[in-house]
Amino acid sequence: MSEVLFEADERTMDNLMRGPHVIVRTAASRFAKKEAAFNKEGFEKYGDLIDQYECDGFSIEVQDVAEGRLQEYFAPSLDGIKNKDAIGKIGVSGSGAFAKDFDLDRFKRFGSVKAITTQDVPFGDALPDLFPQLEAWLNLDWKANKIKALNGKWPNLANLSLQGFSGSLSIFEGAPIKRLFLIASTIKDVEDILCFKEVEVLQISSCKIAGDVSVFSKLKKLRSLRIYGKNKLEGWENLKSDIVQNLEISHLPCKLSKEDFPKLRNYVINAYRPRDPFYEEGGDLGKLGRALSSIFD
Length: 297
Hints:
two-stranded antiparallel sheet; mainly beta; single chain
């Protein structure tokens, strides 16, 4: 449970897009123990709270796009944060764009950042160079923030969540991915995922994906698996694992064979429709949810 340490909300009911807002709270993430979350105006007014509360994480939600058109540019004043080396987690979410004269290299001064969240404010091709120590990337909009290939960069990237991804996962080949979340994404071949030999937690949610799902049986470290949403995957009867403990499948077209999952503890099968003949659940559903809740845990 997080604890709110400070909160200020000066927005009005007439326009929730305007006026400063900030909340400082404790966090359970291993990348940050105290985080400050701002809207854009809140960061401009209350950014000094990052140092005041000794935060090691902060995020800014930008809403500069209205009716599909850019209203303003975003140029955060990062110089006011004194203890930049203490920051382990940064997020820039929402919709907008950095000012054309804004120097993205200012983010390089946060040399200890290991986790980032990006959305519709484009960083361009600079991302791997801005955060070379990255271990976790939550990308909420692949079109706005995509990379061509790692080429040896981000050697510590172990946690990856991609929303709206399209293409081949081979661009991340070489990264020691342990937690992989694909949301509303399209990959060329389900076997692309096999390039991540170290993956322990895999979530595929509302993705356009086809192929033989039984290839996941080759992932020898996979402990938690969620496949949510309709898809064109086949080979379900051959999906098996000696180590999977947590399993959620929303559209399983056959009965789950417990013999094929000897260490299975927590599971939900076809819960979207409880009267489904193959509906089944068991174990601790809270543990199941926590195992697949976030790449930042």
